[in-house]
DNA sequence: CAGTGGTCTAGACCACAGC
DNA sequence: CTGTGGTCTAGACCACTGC
C-alpha cells in the first residue's frame, strides 16, 4: 500500500488534464465508473476527486458530474514580510518615534475610525549592513495589552505587533504595492542623493469583525527590494 | 441535514482556535473522541478535519494526533494580469514591434537558452482612455503553433499567448515586482515629463519540465498602477 | 425514471508514537 | 501493549439533473 489508491486516481486524472486529453469544461468519468476502473469503493474515489478539487483541477455540479476547471492564470502567491525580501534582509532596525496621535482625514478614511480615536504611531528605519533601506510607519488602533515598550516594538513585524493582543487566526490582511518618488524627509533618512524611486508596501490588518486594526506603510529604496511570487504554494 | 455534521465539527473547532481557547501547537481531541462528542462516524469526523487542514488551521502527525497550526502571517494572494489592476484597466493596446531576435547575455541567463536559439520579441504600449500607461515587452521561446499574427498578439495577456501551445495546467509562473526610474525611451513612450517612477512587473513562465518558456516585462507609469492582495482566496 | 454527486455509517486493517 | 492517525470497503439515503 505504498501508493494509496486515491493517489493513483489523482495522478491518472491529472495526467489526462496536463497532457490535454481532458480540456476545461470536459466531464470526468462518473464516480461509479471510476470505482469500476480502479476497483475502488466510492469513498476512495471521492477522496481522490476532493484532492483534485482542492488543487483547482476540477469542480463538481451535483446531479450532473465532475468537470475540468479552467485554471486561474492570474493568481500568484507572495510571501511578504517587512524585514525580508528576495534581494535584501533587514539586519538592524532603529526606532525613530513612538507617539499617540489623532488621525488626520486620510487615516480616518483608511482605518475607518472617528477623529477622536487615539492611534499609536511608530516610525522606524530599517538597515542592511549599516545602510538605510526602508522607512517604516505603523498606525495601530490602541487596544488593551498592546505593546508600547520600545524593546518590544523595535524589531517586530506588523503581524507580530498585533498578534500579541488578537488570536492570529482572526486576522484578515490586505497588501497594496506601488511606486513613488521620495520626498525630502525620505531622501534624508534613506540617504538618497540622486534619482531613485521608492517601492511602497502598505499593509492593513483587520479583526474578526473585519474592522481595521492597523495600517503599516513601508517605503523601500528602489534598489533594495524586489518582491517575488509564484502560482504555487511554498514547501 | 441542512447543516452537515462535518460542517458543525469544522465550525466548532474553528471557533476554539479563533477565540484563543486552542493555541498553535495545542492538540485537538482525538478522532475517536470527536466521534463520541458529535455522535458521528470516524469518516465524517475525518472529513471535517481534512477541511480544517486544507484551510491551514491544523496539521496531523500519524500516531500522535491533530494539532493547531501557526498560520503563515507572510502569505498573500494577488491576482495579477497586465491589463487590469486595482486602479486601472487597459482599454487599448498598440503593437510597437514583433521580431525574431537572438538573446543577449541577460536573456540567455534569464531564459536559460543558448545564444543561438531564436526568440520572439513583442513590444506593446498599453493605453487607458487615450493615455499611455504601460510599456510591455515579451520574449517568447519559439515553439510550433505559436501565434505570430498581429491580430492574435495585440490584445493577448502573457498567459494567453502561451496557452495556445501548452496545456495551461502545466504552467509554473513567477512574478517579480520592483520600482525603477524610466530611461529616455520609456519617458518618450509613456509621456513622462517630470519625475515619475516606473513600477516594473516581470513574469516568467515555465513548462512542465520547469524550463522557461518566456519572459514578460511590463513597465507601468507609477501613477497608473497599484497591485493589491489579501491573505484570503477569491470568492 | 435512472444517473449523478453529497452525506453518512460501522466496521476493517495498517503503520506509527509512547509507555 | 494501547492509542493515534491513514487507508479502505460496501453498503445506505438524500437532492438534484435530464430525459
Instruction: Kindly identify the CATH topology of the largest domain in chain A.
Output: Chorismate lyase
Uncertain runs of chain A: none
Supply the helix-strand structural class of chain A. alpha+beta
Q: What are the secondary-structure elements of chain A, in order, as H or E?
A: HHHEEEEEEHEEHHEHEEE
Beta-strand fraction estimate of chain A: 25-35%
Spatial separation of the terminal alpha carbons of chain A: 25 Å
How many structural domains of chain A?
2
Biggest β-sheet strands, sense, barrel of chain A: 6 strands, antiparallel
Strand order within the widest beta sheet of chain A: 6-7-8-11-10-9
Which secondary structure elements does this structure contain, and how are they paired or packed?
The structure is a homodimer of 235-residue chains.
Chain A: H1 5-18, H2 31-38, H3 42-54, E1 58-61, E2 65-68, E3 75-79, E4 84-85, E5 88-89, E6 92-101, H4 105-111, E7 119-128, E8 131-141, H5 150-154, H6 158-163, E9 172-180, H7 184-189, E10 198-206, E11 212-221, E12 227-230
Antiparallel strand pairs in A: 1-2, 3-12, 4-5, 6-7, 7-8, 8-11, 9-10, 10-11
The first copy, chain A, binds a DNA duplex (19 and 19 nucleotides) through residues 1, 4-6, 30-32, 40-44, 46-47, 49, 60-66.
Walk me through this protein's architecture:
- The structure is a homodimer of 235-residue chains.
- Chain A has 235 residues and is of the alpha+beta class.
- Chain A has 2 domains: 5-68, Winged helix-like DNA-binding domain superfamily/Winged helix DNA-binding domain (Arc Repressor Mutant, subunit A); 77-230, Chorismate lyase (3-Layer(aba) Sandwich), CATH 3.40.1410.10.
- Helix content of chain A is 25%, strand content 34%.
- Chain A is built from 7 helices and 12 strands.
- In chain A, strands 6-7-8-11-10-9 form a 6-stranded antiparallel sheet. Chain A has a two-stranded antiparallel sheet with strand order 1-2.
- The radius of gyration of chain A is 25 Å and the shape is elongated.
- The first copy, chain A, starts with a helix and ends in a 5-residue tail after the last strand.
- In chain A, 34% of the residues are buried.
- The model of chain A has no long low-confidence stretch (mean pLDDT 92).
- The interface between A and B is large, with 59 and 60 residues.
- The first copy, chain A, binds a DNA duplex (19 and 19 nucleotides) through residues 1, 4-6, 30-32, 40-44, 46-47, 49, 60-66.
Amino acid at each position: 500500500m505504498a501508493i494509496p489508491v486515491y493517489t493513483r486516481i489523482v495522478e491518472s486524472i491529472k495526467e489526462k488534464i496536463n497532457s490535454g486529453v481532458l480540456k476545461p469544461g470536459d466531464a470526468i468519468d462518473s464516480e461509479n465508473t471510476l470505482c469500476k476502473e480502479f476497483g475502488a469503493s466510492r469513498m476512495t474515489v471521492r477522496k481522490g476527486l476532493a484532492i483534485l478539487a482542492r488543487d483547482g483541477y476540477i469542480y463538481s455540479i451535483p446531479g450532473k458530474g465532475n468537470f475540468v476547471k479552467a485554471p486561474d492564470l492570474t493568481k500568484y502567491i507572495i510571501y511578504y514580510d517587512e524585514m525580508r525580501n528576495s534581494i535584501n534582509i533587514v539586519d538592524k532596525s532603529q526606532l525613530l518615534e513612538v507617539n499617540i496621535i489623532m488621525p488626520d482625514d486620510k487615516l480616518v478614511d483608511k482605518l475607518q475610525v472617528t477623529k477622536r480615536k487615539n492611534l499609536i504611531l511608530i516610525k522606524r528605519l530599517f538597515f542592511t549592513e549599516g545602510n538605510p533601506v526602508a522607512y517604516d510607519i505603523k498606525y495601530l488602533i490602541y487596544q488593551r495589552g498592546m505593546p508600547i515598550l520600545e524593546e518590544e516594538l523595535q524589531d517586530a513585524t506588523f503581524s507580530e505587533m498585533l498578534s500579541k493582543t488578537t488570536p492570529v487566526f482572526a486576522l484578515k490582511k490586505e497588501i497594496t504595492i506601488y511606486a513613488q518618488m521620495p520626498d525630502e524627509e525620505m531622501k534624508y533618512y534613506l540617504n538618497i542623493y540622486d534619482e531613485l524611486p521608492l517601492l511602497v508596501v502598505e499593509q492593513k490588518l483587520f479583526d474578526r469583525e473585519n474592522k481595521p486594526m492597523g495600517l503599516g506603510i513601508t517605503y523601500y529604496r528602489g534598489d533594495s527590494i524586489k518582491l517575488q511570487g509564484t502560482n504555487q504554494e511554498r514547501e
